[in-house]
Amino acid sequence: MASSFLRVSLLFISLYTADGYLYYNTDRCDFNSSDLKDIEYIRSLYFNKMEIIRFSSSLGKFVGYTEYGVKQAERFNKDPSVLAQMRAQKERYCKHNIDIDYQNVLIKSAEPYVRLHSMAPPGGKHPAMLVCSVYDFYPKQIRVTWIRDGQEVTSDVTYTDELADGDWYYQIHSHLEYTPRSGEKISCMVEHASLKAPLITDWDQSMSKTDRNKILIGASGLILGLVVFLAGFLYYKRKARDLSKSDSERNKIAFGASGLILGLALTAFFFYKRKAKDLSMLEFQRNKLIIVASGLILGLVLSLAALIFYRRKTCGQIPGSKPVQTSSDQFKKAYPTF
To answer: Is residue 127 helix, strand or coil?
Structure first.
């Protein structure tokens, strides 16, 4: 039983892996519209991946490409019924399916949406660069142009190809390197079959929502730090009146104030380092950041001044504490005649 199964298995493997011949035919329709005059029906017969014979509705007959194909083409062309059947395929097969394609897919279109943003240029003669990204449009054909103060921009502009998303939609990206001017207007204009009029998106030179949020977070942190510092200062003033105040409590206040000052300094430093990398930022945007940074620095200076004041007070004589003897006091005590 086992030997019979083995023989059958070997026979199956040998038949499966043995070299064979492949014969097939394809039918295709080349068209530019749904009109019959713009449609061509083609049937091709292949033997071992080589086309041997073809019928084209444009010629109305068969054409052979090998010795065997030429003989077969002559035989088919002598048969009026075969030619009539093949010529009818243009309307019966192609026209029918092309109408379905146009109705359900080809005349459909999807409007694009545009995202316009700035980024640091990779290098060159201009300090700023804008990117116009166009997404989710169909069909593929599209035109993207840059408009600056009413004039089309043709220099320092680059484009990507129409990139297929794999779901019938496409995307394209255009880059504009430029030198910002005060009061100028820059727009990205998109022309597409799905749009009744060109889609124009203006570049908003005001600070983006993300930048505004960052500044709000930084300002909130500054206010919170000042409030905490003020609370600590008031706490210190209240405790300074307590004659039994210990050195450990004063040290805790000192460490707290030092931590606050260090936090403000690190916040200002990293905020500056992050924004300094954005070379495409416009002048008035940089001024806003300078104002915020100045506020941080002012808070840092005030905190530092308060800490120095506190340290001077704690190192001096506090009511109820013992006076600190200096070297001159010790010298006078040892040598009273002097």
So the answer is: coil
